[in-house]
Amino acid sequence: PNSMETNITPSLIKAVSGEFDTESVYKLSLCRMNIRKIENLHLCPNLTDLNLTGNEIVKVEGLDSCSTLRKLTLTTNNLAFLDNIGEVKTLESLFLQENKIANSSEISKLAQLSSLKTLYFRNIDGTQKNPVCDHPSYRTVIIRTLPSLTNLDGERLKHGADADMSEMPQISSLSKGPKFEIPESEPWLKDFVWDDCFADVDAFLKKSEDKFRAVVNDAKKLNANAMSLLSHYD
Fold it and tell me: Phi/psi zone of residue 79: left (φ > 0), alpha (ψ -120 to 50 degrees), beta?
């Protein structure tokens, strides 16, 4: 790779995006260019997607004018701090894998990102992780800081499903609820006498089959009702 530093200039933005008018740039990919400073993005007021993967960026800056930015990729850089990212309140997706973020207090700097839905500090298979991912409260801190988050490191989050376990009802308290008795199962051909040569086997089986299908249909209805109820909490 070229060891010379690359500056984000108007000419570079135009060349990479293919747009003569920088105000027409909506997506900008400046990957592996040895960029060390985020600058001149005020020239792209309509930018929605910025990819700066594989550079030498040590500080988040120059994004305060990006009032329409929804996706920011800073994977494989040298970031240890997350100052200023909170200024980009329109962000919906943030990718920070393979940086040097080690302190869990940095996560609190994302609290202003109320629209953030997707956040990556590592890949779903655990690769490209930041040191902070090894913190015992890593997931808890993120979920408390960003309650609207639906995707953390590639794993889908369900509202309330990842709440602090200390807030979950204990098993002893759950046992105080109504108790249901499960009836003993019975064989479908319980009353059939196999050695009765006059018995109508087909008629008996038809009756049992009809009963079985009725039970299956009832089960399907209950399942549909359950799925409908659960969808309100998903």
Answer: beta
d(CA 156, CA 134) in angstroms, rounded, equals 19
Instruction: Tell the residue number behind the tokens 């594989």, with chain if given.
Output: 54
DSSP 52-116: -TTS---S--S-TT-TT--EEE--SS-----TTGGG-TT--EEE--SS----GGGGGGGTT-TT-
Give 129's contacts (C-beta < 8 A, 6+ positions apart): 97, 98, 121, 122, 123
Q: Report how far residue 167's alpha carbon sits from residue 130's, in angstroms, rounded to the nearest whole number.
A: 28
Local confidence pLDDT in tens for the 234 residues of the chain: 446 889 999 999 999 999 999 999 999 999 999 999 999 999 999 999 999 999 999 999 999 999 999 999 999 999 999 999 999 999 999 999 999 999 999 999 999 999 999 999 999 999 999 999 999 999 999 999 999 999 999 999 875 444 444 333 344 444 455 565 666 666 656 665 555 555 566 776 777 778 778 887 888 888 777 776 766 554
Q: Buried b / exposed e across 74-109, counting CB within 10 Å, b at 16+?
A: bbbbebbbbeebebbebbbbbbbbbbebeebebbeb
Q: What is the DSSP letter of 6?
A: B
Side chain identity, residue 96: L
Q: CA dist 126 to 76, 102, 152, 153, Å?
A: 14, 15, 12, 9
Name the token pair of 64.
């305060």
CA of 191: how far to CAs of 90, 199, 204, 207, 215, in Å? 69, 11, 9, 12, 19
